[in-house]
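Service request form, structural biology core

Requester: graduate student, group of Dr. S.
Request type: structure prediction, single chain
Budget code: on file
Notes: please return the result as C-alpha cells.

Sequence provided:
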Amino acid sequence: MDQRGTGLSTPLTAQSMAQLESAKEEASYLQHFRADNIVRDAELIRSFLVPNGEPWSVLGQSYGGFCAITYLSMAPTGLRHVILTGGLPPLDGGCSAEAVYRACFKRVLIQNFKYYERFPQDEEVVREVVLYLAENEGGVTLPSGGRLTPRGLQLLGLSGLGSSGGFERLHYIFERAWDPILVSGAKKQLSYTFLRMYENWLDFGTNPLYAVMQESIYCQAAASKWAAQRVREEMGVQFEALLSARKSAPVLFTGEMVFPWMFDEIAALRPLKEAAYILADKVDWPYLYNKEVLRMNKVPVVAAVFYEDMYVNFNISEATASRIAGIRVWVTNEYMHSGLREDGVHVLDQLLGMLKGKHLLR
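Core staff response, request fulfilled:
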C-alpha cells in the first residue's frame, strides 16, 4: 500500500499543505503521519481485503520495517509473518535520533572515503564547486528558486553514498558540473544541467514529507530538536565543506540527515519551515513500540540486516533484534541498504527460505 501522505494516499506537497491556514494547523495535521497511524490504516485495509479477518504477511523495507515493528507492537494478531529488509528501528523511549545519527555519521565517513577511493579525481572537482559556491554570496540560484550553497551540496550524499550504483551516479553528476568554455577568458560557471540534476536528485519538491517528518520517526514522548544538526556540530570541523576545500582536504558529503537550514535554502521546503520547527519541538509524541509485547512475540519474523547499511545502523539493528522473541536474522555485506531493489529474488528467496525452514538454525 502507499503509506499515508505518499503515492496515491493523499500525497502531501507544499501546495496541498497550503490549504491549511497556519503553520500550527500544518504541524497538527502532520503529526498523524507516523508509523502508529500507518499501522491503523493497514489494519483497516486488512479487514476489507483478507477473508474472515485472517492475518496477513507484511514486507517492510527501510522505514517500512520500522512500521512493521510498530505493527508487531500494536496489532500482532493481524500478522501471519513479518519480513524485514534493512528496517530494524531503535526501540527505547525518548528520542533516539541523536544515538542514531552518531552511529550513522561514522558510516557516512567510511562511505565518503570509499567514494573518493573509487573516484579520486572527484576530490578536486568537488573542492572547486564548493569554492565557486562560496564566492557567490548566498550560493547559486537553483532552477526552482532555491539556493545551492556548500553545505547544500553535501546533501548529495543522501542517495549517492548509501545505495547500489550511488557512487557512479554521484560521479556522473560532477562530470556535468561546469559549462564548457567556448570563448577564451570566459568566466567559469556551473551548468544548468548540473543544477537541475542536483534538484532532481534530492526530490524534496515531490516528497517534502520525508524532510519534515524524518526525525520524528525516532521520537517517543520526547522532542528531536534538530538532532542531526546537534550531532554534526559535535563532530567539529569534519563536515565543514568550505574549510575542507580551502585546506585542500576532501569535502565530505552527509547522509540521511535533515538540517534546519534546508528549510531556508530548498525552495520546496520553505513554506513548511514554521511547521517543521513546531514538530522539532514537539514532546508528546505517542509511543511506537511495546517492548514487552515484542519480548513475548509469537509471530514468525525474519530480517535481512545489511552490515554496511548507511541508513539503518548495523549495531542498532542487532540490538533491536535481540529484543524481539523468535526473530531470525540474516546478516550480509553483499548488499547495501538497497539490497531488495538490487537483487530482490535472492534476498526474498533467502528470507522466505528461513521462514519455511529451508535454512536451518545453526
